[in-house]
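User: I'm new to structure prediction. If I give you an amino acid sequence, what do you actually give back? Let's try with this one:
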Amino acid sequence: MKSDYFNIVGPVLNSGAECEKILRKLPEWFGSEQTIIDYGVEINSLPTFLVSMHNITCGFISIKPHYKESAELYVIGILPEYHHQGLGRAALESVTEYYRNQGVEYLQVKTLGPAKNWPAYENTRIFYLSLGFKPLEEFPTMWGPDCPCLQMIKKIL
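Assistant: Good question. You get back a string of structure tokens that encode the predicted 3D arrangement of the chain. For your 157 residues, that looks like this:
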């Protein structure tokens, strides 16, 4: 997707280093050094959509395909100075359209659940809800005792 305002390309592979730079600027969501390194390594092998503005990569969404019917928004990041400008929404719409054309029926995303009162993740959940994702299940210990995982899904086909 291209507009006068931004450009979205993808899916591409081997973008872990570029995405890792963005994750490092999002400590409210990605504060652990090992987590950032792990995401960077894994992103290299995942289809990733890059968002750029003025020739600067300012965001991305990496996808983890699971089955022919489903895929997961594995990790998404938009640089803080580009929040609330519609880039995350546009990137997710591009991802949705791409996977709908591939015959994928469902997208899922996992995020920190509401059992953990964390304002940054409350905004994340509101963002996903505004895009049509619905809460499916909260897993209290999937990511550890202090990190309840909320699984959300969206039917796209």
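You can read the tokens as a compact description of the fold. Here is one thing that stands out. The helical segments are 16-23, 33-43, 87-101, 119-130.
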